[in-house]
Amino acid sequence: MGHRLSKIYTRTGDAGTTGLSDGSRVAKDSARIDAIGTVDELNSHIGVILAEAGMPEDVRDCLISVQHDLFDLGGELSIPGHAIMTAAQVTRLEETLDTWNSELTPLKEFILPGGSRAAALTHVARAVCRRAERTLATLGAIESLPPQALPYVNRLSDLLFVLARTFNLRAGHGDVLWQQGKNR
Q: pTM for the complete prediction?
């Protein structure tokens, strides 16, 4: 692969537009750029989770795959009408979700974000993932979306929820249960 970014600054965005991979330019506050940026932010939060010491190998492998998938999604979003992701990527998340969820006790209460540090960081990533889903839905209301974009991000938010619970279980922490009306 040749040098893709030989110069980091271009000055082409100084007037409030940015270039898509197809060569077109759009406003930096467009729904498409909002979606691309939120997916990038999500990927960065997953990188923070991966930086945690003692990351289990199964989790590391899964999250690195997710990071690659999120770059695929960003690539799709940067070239309108282009599809990279497949249903197999959604299925992989579902299979991992089923495996990790089978180790957990069923929930009878809502849980609060927290517990171990890794779980808390994963809850932050889950919340950003839900925002990414909302930005994709907004974009999908005005332009067509790649077919796997919303299913993938929806499953990923579920996977991150289960992963946070898994981190707490593996760290010997219980889920932090919500107590309705606790501070009345």
A: 0.90
Segment 41-52, tens digit of pLDDT: 999 999 999 999
**H helices present in 79-116, as ranges:** 87-101
Residues 140 and 150 sit within 8 Å (Cβ to Cβ): yes
Those residues whose C-beta lies under 8 Å from the C-beta of residue 38, and which sit 6 or more positions away, are 128, 131, 132, 135
Packing angle, helices 57-78 and 87-101, rounded to 10: 150
- The pLDDT tens digits for 41-83 are 999 999 999 999 899 999 999 999 999 999 999 999 999 888 9
Enclosing H/E stretch for 177: strand 176-177
Cα 39 from chain centroid?
A: 6
Whether 156 contacts 122, CB under 8 Å:
no
d(CA 155, CA 163): 12
